[in-house]
Amino acid sequence: MTDALFVDVYPGDRPCDWRAYIAAGAQWHGAIFKVSQGLDYRYDAWAARQRGAFALSARLGVDLFVGCYHYLTLHQGGSLQADFAITAANAAGLKDGSLGTMPLMVDVERGGQRNQNPSRDQVEGVTRAFAARYTERTGREATLYGGELLRSVGCTDRLGCGRSAVALYGRELHGKGESTAEFLRRTGTDLEHLMLWQYSAAGQRSPGPAGYPMTAPGCGAVDISALVLPGGIEALRRISGPAPAM
User: pTM score, two decimals?
Assistant: First the structure.
């Protein structure tokens, strides 16, 4: 794990003072904004306002990055959701290949879908369709965000995505009585492809890794992730650069 930290926010969070966040420098290297959900919700106007402060910083694309995520609705088509998310991201100024913009993240979790009891085939099929369409449209690989749902249905790979972001709140990146490698394997990934570890959630009281903050400057209590990508900031800069030729 590096000292590079990121926050992710959605419209329901308390407003962040992004100028204060960026000015804090040191550990704070970017933010990820919710841009869409299923085929029903777009937050691009809100996300564009959040991104505005980052666009003014000389750090953008050097050691400061922005990104967005789409919350996957498991009873709707994955390919259609990818088109919906790409349209929202572009409208928010978070188009793939734009300066300092990380590949889009697809958020695969139960959330408000608990009463649907999604099957493994449903989770994998919708996510793979989303990832395939995203790659077809952008030439990039999406980042898979997930945790409990992926493990509970038995996913064993990244479902067409290039990298992973894993949520596990606490001091260490492993489950009870197992290694980090085993925990990540059950979440469909491994250390080679892990990009972010979300170790803290807004309102969480249990401590994170020793020495790592539970609040962010200008934001207060918010979801915080540590960069775990092999190669750190330099590697992140490479995957956040211009899109590859199609």
Answer: 0.94
